[in-house]
Amino acid sequence: MKLFDVYPLNNITITRAQGSQVWDEQGTKYLDLYGGHAVISIGHGHPHWKKRIEEQLSKISFYSNSIHIPLQEALAEKLGKVSGKVDYQLFLCNSGAEANENALKLASFHTGRKKIVAFSKAFHGRTSLAVAATDNGNYRAPVNETNNVSFLPFNDSQALEDHFSQHGNEIAAVIIEGIQGVGGIHIAEDQFLRTIRQCCDTYGAVYIADSVQCGYGRSGKFFSHDYAGVQADIYSMAKGMGNGFPVAGIIISPAIKPKHFQLGTTFGGNHLACAAALAVLEVLEREQLIDHADKLGNELMQALRQLTPLENVRGRGLMIGFDVPEQWGALRQRLLTDHQIFTGEAKPRVVRLLPSLALLPEEANQLIDALKKEMALYPIT
Ligand SMILES: Cc1ncc(COP(=O)(O)O)c(C=O)c1O
Fold first, then answer.
1. Neighbour tally for 136: CB within 10 Å
2. Which of 6, 34, 123 has the most ligand 1 atoms within 8 A of CB, as the residue to mutate?
3. How many CB atoms lie within 10 A of CB 270?
4. Nearest C-alpha to atom 3 of ligand 1 is from which residue?
5. Distance 209 CA to ligand 1 centre (A)
6. Which H/E stretch holds residue 304?
7. Which CATH number goes with the domain that contains 60?
8. Which atom of ligand 1 is nearest to the CA of 126?
9. What is the tens place of the pLDDT at every residue in 174-208?
10. Is 261 exposed, middle or buried (0-12, 13-18, 19+ CB in 10 A)?
């Protein structure tokens, strides 16, 4: 059997990883500023994370959600404490799309309404409702087409207010990434998030903060929506939550009261996933990685802004993007092949940096040195 050809691949096989370094099968070392797409939060192979999973593996790795799983309660309590959302309820699942799918579905159950507001360039995942709220027709199959989702311009408060004043009583939810990831690192302005909160309050709609990529401390706050001082009704999370172990979830404000069988899962919240997720929170707290991400991210952005060929350096914490001039179109590939640095991308010419929150300053400098070498070798004319 052949593998389904999902993505274009780099011709590299990674066999070992530690912290922000990964090694291929020839022993070549790479700096990982991509984090396997924002997944590696506390660093590859963190000893505490490995120990937690190994210890759990030797006890029990899975049993269904028909019994008490105290690890889930411990995770809910710890997540409430670290995120500051103490009175929210946690529903556990397995991926970011599934988290958003459940968030949207719950919003519809809660309001009894069908309409969703999403924004230009949004990415919320590939399951049916999540992809319907994703602003990219290439990801939607005909069966995913629906007229229940309206795409409004990102960061346009007036357009949002106008839409609510016409359709407010039909809207179940507004879903928004605090910082758009796949869309190219675009920050939702604080005032825009506050307008979403106001509109949702006025018309009884649910505010869903998609924090799958920008959450879990990556932005320098636990949720990037926290910068605006707003409380969303539901936060979805995944990627950094398990540091590579598949685990995801939504946290739900106390105003929403789920009923039995509205949501459900077989694998969600299994023992191993909870052990991995607890280890991540323990390390985030113990090593103060959220403050570290904030500080190092600011320093890295300042250093990148000194490099004149790079345009629009932007982001928060360790979620950073910049535009590459046309002449430097091959930059990402050269960073990988000539400097052994993994980065992320967004179309058309955005480099995305999504490293571990435990990235070291000297590792951040490695990128700056590589970019300076590129400037000397390929001056922009
Ligand atoms: C903001 C956002 N939401 C949802 C998802 C979907 O997550 P998953 O791939 O785990 O389903 C992603 C994935 O990139 C994402 O960036």
1. 13
2. 123
3. 26
4. 124
5. 12
6. helix 289-305
7. 3.40.640.10
8. 11
9. 999 999 999 999 999 999 999 999 999 999 999 99
10. exposed
Q: Tell which of 286, 318, 346 closes a domain.
A: 286
Which of 92, 127, 213, when mutated, tests ligand 1's pocket best, judged by the most ligand atoms within 8 Å of its CB? Answer: 213
Half-sphere exposure of 31 (CA within 13 A, CB side): 23
- 151 shares a domain with 282: yes
The reply to whether 268 and 300 lie within a common domain is no
Residues 23 and 124 in one domain: no
DSSP 64-110: -TTS--HHHHHHHHHHHHHHS-TT-EEEEESSHHHHHHHHHHHHHHH
Helix (H/G/I), strand (E/B), else coil: 13: coil
> What pTM value is reported for the model?
0.98
The total domain count for the chain is: 2
Residue 211 CA to ligand 1 center (angstroms) comes to: 9
Same domain? 214 vs 91: yes
- Enclosing H/E stretch for 29: strand 29-32
Q: Give the residue numbers spanning the domain of 342.
A: 14-42+288-377
Please give the Cα distance from 248 to 267 (Å, whole number): 11
DSSP string, 145-172: --SSEEEE-TT-HHHHHHHHHHHGGGEE
Ligand 1 centroid to 97 CA: how many Å? Answer: 6
User: What pLDDT shows up at residue 380?
Assistant: 84
Residues with CB under 6 A from ligand 1: 95-97, 100, 123-125, 177, 181-182, 210, 212-213, 238
- Displacement of CA 292 from its chain's centroid (Å): 18
Question: In 3D, which of 159, 156, 118, 155 has the Cα closest to residue 140?
Answer: 118
Q: Hey, whose CA ends up nearest to atom 4 of ligand 1?
A: 124
Residue 3: inside a domain: no
Distance between Cα 58 and ligand 1 center (Å):
31
Q: Closest ligand 1 atom to the C-alpha of 182?
A: 16
Instruction: Kindly indicate the confidence band of residue 334, based on its pLDDT and cuts at 50, 70 and 90.
Output: very high
